[in-house]
Amino acid sequence: MYWERVTEEIYLFTSDRYALVNSVAILTGEGLIIVDGLPFPDEARQIARFLHVHTGLDFHTLILTHHHIDHVYGLSPYPAHLDVLAHERCRQKLLEIGEDSLAEARRNDPIFDDVVLRIPNVTFDTGEMLLRAGKKTFRMFALPGHTADNIGIFYEEEEVLITGDAVMAIPIIADGNWGQQMATLKLIKELSPDTLIQGHGEVILRGEVHTVLDRYIVYLNCAREKAQIALDEGWDPKEIRNIPLEDCGLERVPLGIASHQLHIANILSVYRELAEEQG
Ligand SMILES: [Zn+2]
Question: How far is the CA of 234 from the centre of ligand 1 (A)?
């Protein structure tokens, strides 16, 4: 696990064992706000201990950006009485599939035996949710596309946006929706945060935000074009598997997960969306 200070009040923890997934801690006068956890229980425990020792603060609130297990499992070590904030869809999804997928994770690796699933208890469905802590303001709103339940957390005073997987080194929409993801990237551009903390990988700093988001928009347009061509020309879906990621302006990224497979899954998902639209 790596850690760094993003600002005086924000710590970022990044897993070196799974896809550079991020967990964020924000210091407030009323305690620590935690956004997402790292997937492995020992990493999660290490973060909780580190924060307690380094800041001397208690924990205030937990927030989940979305229901994917690499973000959820790491909330285990925090006190059980804390509120867990998320989108209502996140709560629904975890109630629906949370225990089953945890059982499966445990079958694959007993390291997950220690994980206690935390179900969000404070949620919002439409509009925004506001959290005030120690004179700091956190505005939460939907950023769907990667998943239907993904939210962003905007820390107003410092103009830091935590996006969950709405922003990733390679956009992933296979479990989501192309149109929603495009709208989300455009919304983030309009918001124009000073600093952007993605769900996985490095922090995007002032001056880079628009360039990076534009690159992802170009990528998604390209993925849709490729899917449209494949559909119009009646390609065998197997042929889609040969379209290189580099054709859509992205490089294979050092996330430790297979960029090419994610890219193909994206195109296939748009292909299915288009095929349905066109009957
Ligand atoms: Zn995700």
Answer: 31
